[in-house]
Amino acid sequence: MPYIKVGGDVEIKLQANGKHISGKIIRFTRELTTATRTMLAEVDVPNADLALSTGMTAEVTIVLQKQIGVLTVPAGAVSQGNGQPYVLIVDAANKVQKVPVELGIQGPDQVEITKGVAEQQFVIVSGQSNYQAGQIVQPKISTISMPKQGGDQ
Fold first, then answer.
1. Over residues 8-28, mean pLDDT
2. pTM for this one?
């Protein structure tokens, strides 16, 4: 709740057509209902093309924090061991290495890595239970399109 502010960004995905619209918080109650963890907020949404109509439903994401130009990996690439998050990387010798990492902002699809992995390192993004540290692998590079959640992260 402390991150919600007037002028804050809101990303809206219309269920009817999948269209994405950006809006701004123009007011909110500052009254949190603890039983449901909800608060009323009013969002100003442009509707010049009349794409919005009564009765439509949408998925709304309030952008609480925004980081630009940070290192992120798919959320499924991060594992937990002994309370310490880690990722599996493939080093220059094609060996799997378990690397402890520090996490920043975490979204539903991606996680910011603040320490432990550098740009251009190869990270295993799925099937981590199939690999052991020290195992030699033949990596296959693939491109993953990361959805934007409330802007660039």
1. 90
2. 0.59
